[in-house]
Automatic annotation (TrEMBL), chains A, B:
GO terms for biological process: histidyl-tRNA aminoacylation; mitochondrial translation. The keyword Aminoacyl-tRNA synthetase applies. Signal peptide: none annotated. It catalyses: tRNA(His) + L-histidine + ATP = L-histidyl-tRNA(His) + AMP + diphosphate + H(+). The lineage of its organism: Eukaryota, Metazoa, Chordata, Craniata, Vertebrata. Belongs to the class-II aminoacyl-tRNA synthetase family. Residues 36-378 form the Aminoacyl-transfer RNA synthetases class-II family profile domain. One of its GO terms (molecular function) is identical protein binding. This is histidine--tRNA ligase. The gene is hars.
Length: 511, 511
């Protein structure tokens, strides 16, 4: 066998990272996986489920419903929604049906769903995989198939209240996941457009200059300026004026100051955006999240469909950056190091109307949690920690100490299952007791119910605590009844409520 | 706007069902969905989550881990695994990378995963969508994108123990989902092959005759016989002998009788299969599931990869059949009417070896729950029942009785959220009390916390039970503290534990 060497195995064979790539394999590669994708093994699934459960709890606490849409959409549904990134869309082969593409995000399918069902207000979350034919960088959590966790509020409401809730949600989720310090950058498309206008950027260059500004979190201002002037033909003077604005960061005070700014206040668009930022911060104060939110004029975001407020959350802890194998300098670096975006979103008031035959608009604001990078961090954290991750929830192993007790084991486990107890039995007629106990230790199963000739004769089951090796058996009751552990044993054993139920059930007693 | 008329909307516009189809739309169709797929609205999601939770609980009770694999595989991974059905595989467009196909089931990706990671034993479940370019029949739960819930046991174990557990799992899930009566048909590929051999079917016709036998649940014996003789060129005598065998149904007794059958007992293959069926039934007796399991020689199953035992579960209740809009006559009809398969599986000992460079085999047995048909039934049941399905879990609505109290509402809800309480607020500066209360009734929110000038002055919050319209307020405590409901009110209100927590928390008391 050759070594695992395609990109999906980059973590296993980092030196081969540059040899294999999408569509090309190193000689001797025996992998049969798709480049840029990953399988989740049971340990990774355990981490994934924990992350999802935190996120879903937060979405539900905020009253969201959930929907689901197909993995593919009509190609025309996705066309013209993603700007330059449209080239990354996966198309299906034309096999004599419709022209289909894999979804690129969850926002466009959501807008299509609202328009098709004529829904004018809803608060929903959607957790699902999306697809982008990007250059994968697996060790940094960049895949071609990856999860997004989206929360969106659609409806005609008073300004900035739903927008503020989206930021509150990002704040809650990132705090609860305990990934280290973070910042949420906020800006507004109208402020950007107003800024471009007053700095003398020609109208037709707004979008392209905007996507250059978007690179400020990945490259220094000098390079961004060079791209604006040399590649995009902007005047040096305009670039320098933009440079002044995009270095500004602050809170409500900055919005107030800019509303007085001689140049920027000439743009009605910018003023509307600034007034909304002010309003937003007043709600964020009530939500008690202003300590992590920064009004940052360098935030641009690539997607075409945003119309108002935009935001992006970045982890800033140097420790996390190291764990993630990535150390970039954030735009507004300060002392902390950015490890890239883990959440982003904004207001898109025009998207639903693009799917409605009469163009009826439904204002929307939402946020998308980019979960793969979070998974990577959590996985590395789990590996570094001594704590063992259980991948099953088995409470008791039904074992036998002698041969020819398969029937009795199957009878006992049937009773346990029908009592709702999570139980396992080895699929062997005559397994060795040692191998049954070893399996318990490996899998973290806390209890073993042991059947033997003597127990059968006495009509008892021996119950053994794997960690402490303590054993108990009832004196004289039916095969399934054992004595309840004495209370002090329970306390030292650190067994869960479910396992206590098992013990109580086994003893035939109510708790 | 034209009426919704593509296949995805067949339930809404049943008369147009035949007008639209994959790739063709009726004139005036305004749908932007992919034919053969569906969106799940919040109500459907609530049902789906309930079904999944029942299934996952069962899988976990039996000690399964879970994995996930990408939605697409290399095309070559799927090639040659599905027999005649391979034409239904969705291919991706060649966009300069690998040739990819959407997964057709979860079994082949599982086998690929085991081989690639050199895993020789695992018990895992996997719940995910699979893709087939079949003719959709949405009202009967047949889609081009649909969920499968798979449970498989891989490893070299003593015969029939894991196989019996798979059947036990099907039994538990179908019982718990409460879909009405069901049967689990069992057969063995080796018995089928042995039967074909002793009936005089030429070796090279085994597979094609097998797929004709597979149609016995959809058409009467006469038609199946005709296809064998006229289309597939089988002798009338061989067909009639097959006809005798495939009409047989029974339990362990039938296996014993067939082991004595003069003709069938000449086939070693058949005898091995029959011995295993006998062994299987002895375990099924211990698992207490023999009342629903039938050894049925007409069961064939289409997929190529099965090597031993095969099984399929069908719902038999006439009531369910009517609800499902489908009434077929089962092969062994009796008095009950089959509504088609809801679960199926079997043993596939050769599949993993096909992905291993050295052909090392890993014996596997598994079952797949076909969930879409179950969703359809549950949805129709939910529609027929008076019970209202909640799509959110909101416990309390933070409302105001007067104008200009947005700040106070946002402050209060911030406290509720940080206490883990699921709470909502209307995104309006000055919502009407009536519309806030109406929203509670529509969404099934049980409690409203009402703020008004008087309450603020008194330093209390009024808490109102939406259903009974009872109200309470504390006498003199902080804005967040209200009196605990008297116990008798709790009882008549039928409020949940979480809501009680809310009340206790609001009152500043421990439970």
């Amino acid at each position: 066998d050759g070594p695992p060497c395609c990109l999906a195995c980059a973590t296993a064979a980092p030196l081969l990272r540059d040899v294999c790539g999408p569509g090309r394999r190193a000689p001797g590669c025996v992998c049969v996986c798709v480049c840029g994708t990953r399988d989740y093994n049971p340990k990774q699934m355990a981490i994934r489920e924990k992350v999802f459960s935190t996120i879903v709890s937060c979405f539900k606490r905020h009253g969201a419903e959930t929907i689901d849409t197909p993995v593919f959409e009509l190609k025309e549904t996705l066309t013209g929604k993603y700007g330059e990134d449209s080239k990354l869309i996966y198309d299906l082969k034309d096999q004599g049906g419709e022209l289909l593409s894999l979804r690129y995000d969850l926002t466009v399918p959501f807008a299509r769903y609202l328009a098709m069902n004529k829904i004018t207000n809803i608060k929903r979350y959607h957790i699902a995989k999306v697809y982008r034919r990007d250059n994968p960088a697996m060790t940094r959590g960049r895949y071609r198939e990856f999860y997004q966790c989206d929360f969106d509020i659609a409806g005609q409401y008073d300004a900035m209240i739903p927008d503020a809730e989206c930021l509150k949600i990002v704040y809650e989720i990132l705090s609860e996941l305990d990934l280290g310090d973070f910042r949420i950058k906020v800006n507004d498309r109208r402020i950007l457009d107003g800024m471009f206008a007053v700095c003398g950027v020609p109208d037709e260059k707004f979008r392209t200059i905007c996507s250059t500004v978007d690179k400020l979190d990945k490259m220094p201002w000098e390079e961004v300026r060079r791209e604006m002037v040399e590649e995009k033909g902007l005047s040096e003077q305009a670039a320098d004026q933009i440079g002044e604005y995009v270095s500004m960061q602050g809170g409500m005070d900055l919005a107030e100051r800019l509303l007085q700014d001689q140049k920027l206040s000439q743009s009605k668009l910018a003023c509307a955006g600034l007034a909304d930022i002010k309003q937003l911060f007043s709600y964020l104060q009530l939500f008690q999240v202003t300590d992590k939110v920064v009004f940052d004029l360098s935030l641009a975001r690539g997607l075409d469909y945003y119309t108002g407020i935009i935001y992006e959350a970045v982890l800033t802890q140097a420790g996390v950056a190291a764990a993630c194998g990535e150390a970039q300098n954030g735009a507004g670096g300060e002392e902390s190091v950015s490890v890239g975006s883990v959440a982003g979103g904004g207001r898109y008031d025009g998207l639903v109307g693009m799917f409605d035959p009469k163009g009826r608009k439904v204002p929307c604001v939402g946020v998308s949690i980019g979960i793969e990078r979070i998974f990577s961090i959590m996985e590395q954290k789990a590996e570094a920690s001594a704590e063992k991750i259980r991948t099953t929830q088995v409470q008791v192993m039904v074992a036998s100490a002698q041969k020819n007790l398969l029937e009795e084991r199957l009878k006992l486990i049937t009773e346990l299952w029908s009592a709702g107890i999570k139980a396992e039995v080895m699929y062997k007629k005559n397994p060795k007791l040692l191998s049954q106990l070893q399996h318990c230790e490996e899998a973290g199963i806390p209890l073993v119910a042991i059947l033997g000739e003597q127990e059968l004769k006495d009509g008892v089951v021996k119950l053994r605590v794997v960690a402490s090796r303590e054993e108990v058996a009832s004196e004289s009751c039916s095969i399934l009844h054992v004595e309840l552990f004495p209370v002090d044993v329970q306390q030292t054993m650190d067994i869960s409520a479910a396992e206590l139920t098992l013990l109580c059930w086994a003893s035939g007693r109510a708790l």
